[in-house]
Amino acid sequence: MKKKLMLTSLAVVLSLSACTDKLELQPRQSIDAATALSDAQAVESAIIGSYGILGGGALYGTNFNLLSELQGSEGYVSWRGTFASYREVANKTYTNANAEAQRTWLAAYGAINNVNGVLNALNVVTDADQKSTLEGEARFIRGILFFELVRYYALPWGATSGNTQLGIPLVLTPSSDVNQANTQTPRSTVAQTYTQVIDDLTKAASLLPDDNGTRADRYTALAFLARVYLQQGNYAAALAAANSVITSGYYRLNPSVTSIFRNRNTQESIFEIQQNDQNNAGTANDGLTTFYASIPTAGGGRIGRSDVRIISTFVNSYAATDARRTELLYVGALGGASQYYTGKFTDFGANIPVIRLAEMYLIRAEANLQLGSATGASPLADVNLIRARAGVAPLTGTLTLAQIVQERRWELAFEGLRIHDIKRLRLSTGTFAWNAPKLVFPIPKREIDVNPAIVQNEGY
Question: In the Cβ-directed half-sphere of 237, how many Cα atoms lie within 13 Å?
Fold first, then answer.
Protein backbone atom coordinates (compact mmCIF):
# COMPACT_ATOMS: atom_id res chain seq x y z
CA MET A 1 0.00 0.00 0.00
CA LYS A 2 1.17 3.50 -0.74
CA LYS A 3 1.41 6.26 1.83
CA LYS A 4 -0.76 9.25 1.08
CA LEU A 5 -2.10 12.40 2.68
CA MET A 6 -5.84 12.58 3.23
CA LEU A 7 -7.50 15.93 2.62
CA THR A 8 -10.13 16.28 5.32
CA SER A 9 -12.71 18.87 6.28
CA LEU A 10 -11.40 21.73 8.36
CA ALA A 11 -14.50 21.43 10.52
CA VAL A 12 -12.76 18.62 12.38
CA VAL A 13 -9.83 20.91 13.08
CA LEU A 14 -11.94 23.76 14.33
CA SER A 15 -13.93 21.55 16.68
CA LEU A 16 -11.00 19.70 18.19
CA SER A 17 -8.11 22.12 18.45
CA ALA A 18 -7.21 25.35 20.13
CA CYS A 19 -6.08 28.44 18.28
CA THR A 20 -3.26 30.74 19.27
CA ASP A 21 -3.61 34.50 19.30
CA LYS A 22 -2.33 34.31 15.71
CA LEU A 23 -5.72 32.81 14.86
CA GLU A 24 -7.79 35.16 17.01
CA LEU A 25 -8.36 32.96 20.02
CA GLN A 26 -11.81 33.24 21.57
CA PRO A 27 -12.69 32.21 25.16
CA ARG A 28 -15.22 29.64 23.90
CA GLN A 29 -12.54 27.96 21.85
CA SER A 30 -10.17 27.74 24.79
CA ILE A 31 -12.85 25.96 26.83
CA ASP A 32 -13.44 23.49 24.00
CA ALA A 33 -9.71 22.86 23.67
CA ALA A 34 -9.30 22.08 27.33
CA THR A 35 -11.78 19.21 27.09
CA ALA A 36 -11.60 18.08 23.45
CA LEU A 37 -8.61 15.71 23.56
CA SER A 38 -9.91 13.58 26.40
CA ASP A 39 -9.79 10.15 24.73
CA ALA A 40 -8.00 8.24 21.99
CA GLN A 41 -10.74 8.83 19.43
CA ALA A 42 -10.51 12.60 19.88
CA VAL A 43 -6.72 12.51 19.53
CA GLU A 44 -7.08 10.46 16.35
CA SER A 45 -9.58 12.96 14.98
CA ALA A 46 -7.25 15.86 15.78
CA ILE A 47 -4.51 14.21 13.71
CA ILE A 48 -6.92 13.75 10.80
CA GLY A 49 -7.89 17.41 11.12
CA SER A 50 -4.23 18.41 11.01
CA TYR A 51 -3.80 16.54 7.72
CA GLY A 52 -6.80 18.52 6.50
CA ILE A 53 -5.01 21.81 7.16
CA LEU A 54 -1.95 20.53 5.27
CA GLY A 55 -4.10 19.96 2.20
CA GLY A 56 -5.58 23.44 2.19
CA GLY A 57 -4.66 26.17 -0.26
CA ALA A 58 -2.38 27.97 2.19
CA LEU A 59 -0.09 24.94 2.49
CA TYR A 60 0.41 21.88 0.24
CA GLY A 61 -2.87 22.40 -1.64
CA THR A 62 -1.41 25.46 -3.37
CA ASN A 63 1.14 27.73 -1.72
CA PHE A 64 3.97 25.38 -0.74
CA ASN A 65 4.14 24.57 -4.45
CA LEU A 66 3.24 27.83 -6.17
CA LEU A 67 5.23 30.27 -4.02
CA SER A 68 8.48 28.40 -4.67
CA GLU A 69 7.88 28.35 -8.41
CA LEU A 70 7.00 32.05 -8.57
CA GLN A 71 9.94 33.15 -6.43
CA GLY A 72 12.28 31.47 -8.91
CA SER A 73 10.27 32.46 -11.97
CA GLU A 74 12.96 34.16 -14.05
CA GLY A 75 13.58 32.25 -17.30
CA TYR A 76 11.10 29.64 -16.12
CA VAL A 77 7.50 30.79 -15.65
CA SER A 78 5.55 34.04 -15.76
CA TRP A 79 2.57 35.10 -13.69
CA ARG A 80 -0.26 36.47 -15.84
CA GLY A 81 -3.05 36.36 -13.29
CA THR A 82 -5.01 39.09 -11.51
CA PHE A 83 -4.11 38.15 -7.94
CA ALA A 84 -1.81 40.94 -6.75
CA SER A 85 -0.43 38.83 -3.91
CA TYR A 86 1.03 36.26 -6.31
CA ARG A 87 2.23 38.95 -8.71
CA GLU A 88 4.17 40.49 -5.83
CA VAL A 89 5.82 37.13 -5.16
CA ALA A 90 6.86 36.70 -8.80
CA ASN A 91 8.19 40.28 -8.93
CA LYS A 92 9.71 40.19 -5.41
CA THR A 93 7.78 43.33 -4.49
CA TYR A 94 5.84 41.97 -1.52
CA THR A 95 5.48 43.84 1.75
CA ASN A 96 4.68 42.70 5.26
CA ALA A 97 1.00 42.83 4.25
CA ASN A 98 1.30 40.21 1.49
CA ALA A 99 -1.74 37.96 1.74
CA GLU A 100 0.07 34.76 0.76
CA ALA A 101 2.88 35.24 3.28
CA GLN A 102 0.28 35.89 5.95
CA ARG A 103 -2.12 33.03 5.30
CA THR A 104 0.63 30.45 4.87
CA TRP A 105 2.20 31.46 8.19
CA LEU A 106 -1.13 31.38 10.00
CA ALA A 107 -2.26 28.04 8.58
CA ALA A 108 1.08 26.39 9.32
CA TYR A 109 1.11 27.51 12.93
CA GLY A 110 -2.54 26.48 13.26
CA ALA A 111 -1.61 22.93 12.24
CA ILE A 112 1.45 23.02 14.50
CA ASN A 113 -0.77 24.00 17.41
CA ASN A 114 -3.06 21.07 16.61
CA VAL A 115 -0.28 18.50 16.69
CA ASN A 116 1.25 20.06 19.78
CA GLY A 117 -2.11 19.41 21.40
CA VAL A 118 -1.92 15.78 20.27
CA LEU A 119 1.56 15.37 21.74
CA ASN A 120 0.34 16.91 24.98
CA ALA A 121 -2.62 14.52 25.17
CA LEU A 122 -0.93 11.19 24.34
CA ASN A 123 -1.40 9.97 27.91
CA VAL A 124 -5.09 9.36 27.12
CA VAL A 125 -4.15 6.81 24.43
CA THR A 126 -3.79 3.41 26.09
CA ASP A 127 -3.02 1.21 23.07
CA ALA A 128 0.78 1.23 22.67
CA ASP A 129 0.83 0.85 18.87
CA GLN A 130 -1.79 3.56 18.37
CA LYS A 131 0.06 5.88 20.74
CA SER A 132 3.33 5.36 18.89
CA THR A 133 1.72 6.00 15.51
CA LEU A 134 -0.10 9.14 16.66
CA GLU A 135 3.05 10.57 18.18
CA GLY A 136 4.94 9.79 14.99
CA GLU A 137 2.32 11.49 12.84
CA ALA A 138 2.26 14.57 15.08
CA ARG A 139 6.04 14.87 14.97
CA PHE A 140 6.04 14.32 11.22
CA ILE A 141 3.53 17.11 10.61
CA ARG A 142 5.32 19.50 12.95
CA GLY A 143 8.69 18.65 11.43
CA ILE A 144 7.71 19.23 7.81
CA LEU A 145 5.94 22.48 8.67
CA PHE A 146 8.91 23.87 10.57
CA PHE A 147 11.01 22.88 7.54
CA GLU A 148 8.76 24.64 5.04
CA LEU A 149 8.49 27.73 7.23
CA VAL A 150 12.23 28.13 7.79
CA ARG A 151 12.87 27.85 4.06
CA TYR A 152 10.39 30.61 3.26
CA TYR A 153 10.72 32.98 6.22
CA ALA A 154 14.45 32.89 6.97
CA LEU A 155 17.71 33.38 5.11
CA PRO A 156 18.78 30.01 3.68
CA TRP A 157 21.05 27.43 5.25
CA GLY A 158 24.64 28.56 4.78
CA ALA A 159 23.87 32.30 4.66
CA THR A 160 25.91 32.91 7.82
CA SER A 161 28.71 31.14 9.64
CA GLY A 162 27.11 28.66 12.01
CA ASN A 163 23.64 29.47 10.59
CA THR A 164 23.01 31.94 13.38
CA GLN A 165 20.62 33.99 11.22
CA LEU A 166 17.10 34.19 12.61
CA GLY A 167 14.86 31.23 11.80
CA ILE A 168 11.30 30.85 13.04
CA PRO A 169 9.55 30.58 16.41
CA LEU A 170 9.76 26.96 17.57
CA VAL A 171 6.37 26.62 19.24
CA LEU A 172 6.47 23.21 20.95
CA THR A 173 3.52 23.42 23.34
CA PRO A 174 -0.18 23.92 22.55
CA SER A 175 -2.18 27.05 23.23
CA SER A 176 -5.29 25.71 24.88
CA ASP A 177 -6.26 28.81 26.85
CA VAL A 178 -5.83 32.57 26.64
CA ASN A 179 -2.81 32.69 28.94
CA GLN A 180 -0.95 30.11 26.87
CA ALA A 181 -1.92 31.86 23.67
CA ASN A 182 -0.38 35.08 24.99
CA THR A 183 3.04 33.40 25.40
CA GLN A 184 5.50 35.29 23.22
CA THR A 185 7.97 32.96 21.53
CA PRO A 186 10.98 34.60 19.83
CA ARG A 187 12.58 33.33 16.64
CA SER A 188 15.17 30.59 17.05
CA THR A 189 18.20 30.51 14.77
CA VAL A 190 18.18 28.64 11.47
CA ALA A 191 20.59 26.11 13.00
CA GLN A 192 18.25 25.52 15.94
CA THR A 193 15.27 25.22 13.62
CA TYR A 194 16.92 22.57 11.46
CA THR A 195 17.94 20.68 14.60
CA GLN A 196 14.29 20.60 15.68
CA VAL A 197 13.12 19.56 12.20
CA ILE A 198 15.58 16.67 12.09
CA ASP A 199 14.71 15.62 15.63
CA ASP A 200 10.99 15.54 14.85
CA LEU A 201 11.38 13.66 11.57
CA THR A 202 13.92 11.20 12.96
CA LYS A 203 11.64 10.38 15.87
CA ALA A 204 8.69 10.13 13.50
CA ALA A 205 10.57 7.60 11.38
CA SER A 206 11.31 5.52 14.48
CA LEU A 207 7.73 5.66 15.77
CA LEU A 208 5.69 5.19 12.61
CA PRO A 209 4.89 1.81 11.06
CA ASP A 210 6.27 0.85 7.67
CA ASP A 211 2.76 1.15 6.25
CA ASN A 212 0.12 3.50 7.66
CA GLY A 213 -2.49 3.34 4.94
CA THR A 214 -3.39 6.79 3.65
CA ARG A 215 -1.31 8.62 6.26
CA ALA A 216 2.35 9.29 6.99
CA ASP A 217 4.58 6.32 7.77
CA ARG A 218 8.26 5.56 8.31
CA TYR A 219 9.24 6.06 4.66
CA THR A 220 7.31 9.31 4.33
CA ALA A 221 9.38 10.69 7.20
CA LEU A 222 12.60 9.35 5.68
CA ALA A 223 11.79 10.90 2.30
CA PHE A 224 11.36 14.30 3.91
CA LEU A 225 14.56 13.79 5.86
CA ALA A 226 16.32 13.23 2.55
CA ARG A 227 15.02 16.64 1.43
CA VAL A 228 16.09 18.29 4.68
CA TYR A 229 19.61 16.89 4.58
CA LEU A 230 20.00 17.81 0.90
CA GLN A 231 18.96 21.39 1.70
CA GLN A 232 21.77 21.47 4.28
CA GLY A 233 24.33 19.91 1.97
CA ASN A 234 24.62 16.94 4.34
CA TYR A 235 25.09 14.49 1.50
CA ALA A 236 25.91 11.42 3.59
CA ALA A 237 22.67 11.70 5.56
CA ALA A 238 20.63 12.57 2.46
CA LEU A 239 22.05 9.53 0.69
CA ALA A 240 21.21 7.20 3.57
CA ALA A 241 17.62 8.45 3.86
CA ALA A 242 16.91 8.39 0.11
CA ASN A 243 18.48 4.96 -0.29
CA SER A 244 16.33 3.58 2.54
CA VAL A 245 13.20 4.72 0.73
CA ILE A 246 14.35 3.37 -2.65
CA THR A 247 15.34 -0.04 -1.27
CA SER A 248 12.30 -0.41 1.02
CA GLY A 249 10.39 -2.38 -1.62
CA TYR A 250 7.27 -0.23 -1.22
CA TYR A 251 7.77 1.92 -4.33
CA ARG A 252 8.51 1.65 -8.04
CA LEU A 253 8.78 4.19 -10.82
CA ASN A 254 5.62 4.39 -12.89
CA PRO A 255 6.04 3.33 -16.51
CA SER A 256 5.06 6.77 -17.84
CA VAL A 257 5.78 10.36 -16.79
CA THR A 258 2.07 11.18 -16.69
CA SER A 259 0.86 8.33 -14.47
CA ILE A 260 1.42 9.99 -11.12
CA PHE A 261 -0.52 13.08 -12.23
CA ARG A 262 -3.42 11.21 -13.85
CA ASN A 263 -4.01 8.45 -11.30
CA ARG A 264 -4.46 8.22 -7.55
CA ASN A 265 -1.99 6.63 -5.18
CA THR A 266 0.36 5.18 -7.77
CA GLN A 267 3.33 2.99 -6.93
CA GLU A 268 5.68 5.99 -7.31
CA SER A 269 3.94 8.23 -4.79
CA ILE A 270 5.46 8.56 -1.32
CA PHE A 271 3.30 11.40 -0.01
CA GLU A 272 0.14 12.58 -1.72
CA ILE A 273 -2.78 14.84 -0.91
CA GLN A 274 -5.99 13.02 -1.70
CA GLN A 275 -8.68 15.14 -3.28
CA ASN A 276 -11.91 14.61 -5.16
CA ASP A 277 -14.38 16.76 -7.04
CA GLN A 278 -16.21 17.71 -3.84
CA ASN A 279 -13.25 18.06 -1.48
CA ASN A 280 -10.19 19.84 -2.83
CA ALA A 281 -7.98 22.88 -2.38
CA GLY A 282 -10.09 24.99 -4.73
CA THR A 283 -11.59 25.36 -8.20
CA ALA A 284 -11.75 29.14 -8.61
CA ASN A 285 -9.47 31.05 -6.24
CA ASP A 286 -7.19 28.29 -4.95
CA GLY A 287 -5.80 24.93 -6.02
CA LEU A 288 -2.93 24.02 -8.33
CA THR A 289 -5.18 23.23 -11.28
CA THR A 290 -6.86 26.61 -10.83
CA PHE A 291 -3.61 28.49 -11.35
CA TYR A 292 -1.60 26.19 -13.60
CA ALA A 293 -4.19 24.88 -16.08
CA SER A 294 -5.50 26.37 -19.33
CA ILE A 295 -7.66 23.68 -20.90
CA PRO A 296 -10.63 24.37 -23.21
CA THR A 297 -13.84 22.50 -22.54
CA ALA A 298 -16.51 21.29 -24.95
CA GLY A 299 -18.92 23.95 -23.73
CA GLY A 300 -16.64 26.80 -24.69
CA GLY A 301 -15.19 27.37 -21.24
CA ARG A 302 -11.89 26.26 -19.79
CA ILE A 303 -10.37 24.48 -16.85
CA GLY A 304 -8.01 26.76 -14.97
CA ARG A 305 -7.29 30.48 -14.95
CA SER A 306 -4.21 30.33 -17.25
CA ASP A 307 -2.28 32.28 -14.62
CA VAL A 308 1.11 30.50 -14.72
CA ARG A 309 2.66 30.34 -18.19
CA ILE A 310 5.84 28.44 -18.98
CA ILE A 311 8.65 30.47 -20.57
CA SER A 312 9.44 29.13 -24.05
CA THR A 313 13.18 28.99 -23.34
CA PHE A 314 12.49 26.49 -20.57
CA VAL A 315 10.17 24.48 -22.81
CA ASN A 316 12.88 24.38 -25.48
CA SER A 317 15.51 23.19 -23.01
CA TYR A 318 13.91 19.74 -23.15
CA ALA A 319 14.85 17.38 -25.96
CA ALA A 320 12.19 17.39 -28.66
CA THR A 321 11.35 13.75 -27.90
CA ASP A 322 11.35 14.08 -24.10
CA ALA A 323 8.00 12.83 -22.79
CA ARG A 324 8.16 15.44 -20.05
CA ARG A 325 7.85 17.98 -22.86
CA THR A 326 5.54 16.18 -25.28
CA GLU A 327 3.15 14.82 -22.63
CA LEU A 328 3.41 17.27 -19.72
CA LEU A 329 3.64 20.64 -21.50
CA TYR A 330 0.92 21.96 -23.81
CA VAL A 331 -0.28 25.07 -25.59
CA GLY A 332 -3.18 26.46 -23.58
CA ALA A 333 -6.63 27.82 -24.26
CA LEU A 334 -5.41 31.41 -23.90
CA GLY A 335 -2.37 33.35 -25.00
CA GLY A 336 -1.70 32.13 -28.53
CA ALA A 337 0.41 29.36 -30.02
CA SER A 338 3.55 30.19 -28.05
CA GLN A 339 1.97 30.12 -24.58
CA TYR A 340 2.75 26.89 -22.75
CA TYR A 341 1.32 25.43 -19.56
CA THR A 342 2.22 22.48 -17.37
CA GLY A 343 0.14 19.35 -17.74
CA LYS A 344 0.89 18.15 -14.21
CA PHE A 345 -2.27 19.74 -12.79
CA THR A 346 -5.29 19.41 -15.06
CA ASP A 347 -8.11 18.17 -12.82
CA PHE A 348 -9.50 20.03 -9.79
CA GLY A 349 -10.27 16.79 -7.98
CA ALA A 350 -7.03 14.95 -8.77
CA ASN A 351 -4.59 14.05 -6.03
CA ILE A 352 -1.53 16.26 -5.54
CA PRO A 353 1.81 14.42 -5.34
CA VAL A 354 4.04 16.09 -2.74
CA ILE A 355 7.06 13.80 -2.79
CA ARG A 356 7.73 10.87 -5.09
CA LEU A 357 10.28 8.17 -5.83
CA ALA A 358 11.87 9.93 -8.83
CA GLU A 359 13.08 12.63 -6.47
CA MET A 360 14.69 10.02 -4.22
CA TYR A 361 16.68 8.67 -7.17
CA LEU A 362 17.88 12.16 -8.03
CA ILE A 363 18.82 12.88 -4.41
CA ARG A 364 20.73 9.60 -4.25
CA ALA A 365 22.51 10.42 -7.51
CA GLU A 366 23.51 13.91 -6.36
CA ALA A 367 24.66 12.73 -2.94
CA ASN A 368 26.67 9.84 -4.39
CA LEU A 369 28.32 12.20 -6.87
CA GLN A 370 29.24 14.67 -4.16
CA LEU A 371 30.65 11.89 -1.97
CA GLY A 372 32.39 9.99 -4.77
CA SER A 373 30.41 6.86 -3.87
CA ALA A 374 27.93 4.53 -5.52
CA THR A 375 25.62 3.43 -2.70
CA GLY A 376 22.64 1.61 -4.20
CA ALA A 377 23.71 2.48 -7.75
CA SER A 378 26.11 4.76 -9.56
CA PRO A 379 24.98 8.37 -10.00
CA LEU A 380 24.96 7.83 -13.76
CA ALA A 381 22.71 4.78 -13.45
CA ASP A 382 20.18 6.64 -11.29
CA VAL A 383 20.00 9.63 -13.63
CA ASN A 384 19.68 7.40 -16.68
CA LEU A 385 16.84 5.52 -15.01
CA ILE A 386 14.87 8.77 -14.89
CA ARG A 387 15.88 9.68 -18.44
CA ALA A 388 14.89 6.27 -19.80
CA ARG A 389 11.39 6.66 -18.42
CA ALA A 390 11.18 10.04 -20.21
CA GLY A 391 12.29 8.46 -23.49
CA VAL A 392 15.56 10.35 -23.89
CA ALA A 393 19.00 8.96 -24.62
CA PRO A 394 21.18 7.93 -21.68
CA LEU A 395 24.07 10.12 -20.60
CA THR A 396 27.54 8.70 -21.09
CA GLY A 397 31.01 9.48 -19.87
CA THR A 398 31.70 11.40 -16.66
CA LEU A 399 28.53 12.68 -15.04
CA THR A 400 28.64 16.25 -13.69
CA LEU A 401 26.71 18.01 -10.95
CA ALA A 402 25.33 20.40 -13.57
CA GLN A 403 23.79 17.46 -15.44
CA ILE A 404 22.08 16.16 -12.30
CA VAL A 405 20.77 19.62 -11.45
CA GLN A 406 19.41 20.00 -14.97
CA GLU A 407 17.71 16.61 -14.71
CA ARG A 408 16.06 17.77 -11.47
CA ARG A 409 14.79 20.89 -13.25
CA TRP A 410 13.23 18.82 -16.02
CA GLU A 411 11.81 16.02 -13.87
CA LEU A 412 10.56 18.03 -10.89
CA ALA A 413 9.46 21.22 -12.66
CA PHE A 414 6.34 22.88 -11.19
CA GLU A 415 6.38 20.66 -8.10
CA GLY A 416 7.40 23.29 -5.54
CA LEU A 417 11.18 22.81 -5.44
CA ARG A 418 12.37 25.67 -7.67
CA ILE A 419 13.45 28.38 -5.21
CA HIS A 420 14.74 25.86 -2.67
CA ASP A 421 17.11 24.36 -5.23
CA ILE A 422 18.28 27.83 -6.24
CA LYS A 423 19.08 28.63 -2.62
CA ARG A 424 20.81 25.40 -1.67
CA LEU A 425 22.93 25.41 -4.85
CA ARG A 426 23.78 29.10 -4.31
CA LEU A 427 22.50 30.15 -7.71
CA SER A 428 20.55 33.25 -8.66
CA THR A 429 17.16 34.04 -10.13
CA GLY A 430 17.17 37.11 -12.32
CA THR A 431 19.14 39.76 -10.43
CA PHE A 432 18.53 38.14 -7.05
CA ALA A 433 21.34 36.14 -5.44
CA TRP A 434 20.55 32.95 -3.54
CA ASN A 435 20.84 34.77 -0.19
CA ALA A 436 19.06 38.00 -1.17
CA PRO A 437 16.75 39.31 1.59
CA LYS A 438 14.01 39.76 -1.01
CA LEU A 439 13.89 35.98 -1.47
CA VAL A 440 12.76 35.73 2.16
CA PHE A 441 9.13 36.32 3.00
CA PRO A 442 8.16 38.91 5.60
CA ILE A 443 6.82 37.82 8.95
CA PRO A 444 3.16 38.93 8.77
CA LYS A 445 2.63 42.37 10.29
CA ARG A 446 -0.18 41.14 12.50
CA GLU A 447 2.21 38.59 13.98
CA ILE A 448 4.76 41.29 14.79
CA ASP A 449 2.00 43.39 16.33
CA VAL A 450 0.83 40.67 18.73
CA ASN A 451 4.26 39.22 19.48
CA PRO A 452 6.93 41.91 20.07
CA ALA A 453 9.45 39.12 20.75
CA ILE A 454 9.57 38.42 17.00
CA VAL A 455 12.11 40.37 14.94
CA GLN A 456 11.02 41.23 11.40
CA ASN A 457 13.08 40.18 8.37
CA GLU A 458 15.34 42.70 6.65
CA GLY A 459 13.59 45.12 4.35
CA TYR A 460 10.11 44.88 5.85
Answer: 15
Instruction: Tell me, yes or no, whether 280 lies in a domain.
Output: no
pLDDT of residue 337: 72
Are residues 404 and 324 both part of a single domain? no
Would you say residue 447 lies in a domain? no
- What is the domain-level CATH number for residue 20? 1.25.40.390
Q: What is the pLDDT of residue 111?
A: 97
Q: Are residues 174 and 110 in the same domain?
A: yes
Which regions of 138-268 does DSSP assign to beta strands (E)?
166-169, 187-189
pTM assigned to the model? 0.92
**CA–centroid distance for 295 within its chain:** 25
Q: How far, in Å, CA of 442 to CA of 277, rounded?
A: 34
- How far, in Å, CA of 144 to CA of 146, rounded? 6
Looking at the structure, do residues 306 and 417 belong to the same domain, yes or no?
Answer: no
Number of domains in the chain: 2
Regions of the chain where pLDDT drops below 70 = 1-35, 177-182, 335-336
Length of the chain: 460
Q: Give the residue among 409, 282, 423, 259 at the shortest CA–CA distance from 344.
A: 259
Asked, for residue 454, whether it belongs to a domain, the answer is no
The pLDDT of residue 179: 56
Interstrand relation of 5-6 and 269-274 (parallel, antiparallel or unpaired): parallel
Same domain as 329, residue 362? no
Contact of 143 with 112, CB cutoff 8 Å: no
Give the span between the Cα atoms of 456 and 446, in whole angstroms: 11
Which of 324, 342, 360 delimits the end of a domain? 342
- Helix 40-54 with 128-153: angle, nearest 10 deg: 30
Domain of residue 333 covers 288-342
Q: Give yes or no: residues 328 and 241 share one domain.
A: no
pLDDT at 317: 98
User: Nearest to residue 334, comparing CAs of 379, 300, 373, 295?
Assistant: 295
End-to-end, the C-alpha distance of the chain in Å comes to 46
Q: With contact defined as beta carbons under 8 Å apart, do 246 and 385 qualify?
A: no
Domain co-membership, 57 together with 165: yes
Give the per-residue pLDDT at 62. 98
pLDDT reported for residue 3: 40
Give me the helices (H) in 154-189, please.
178-181
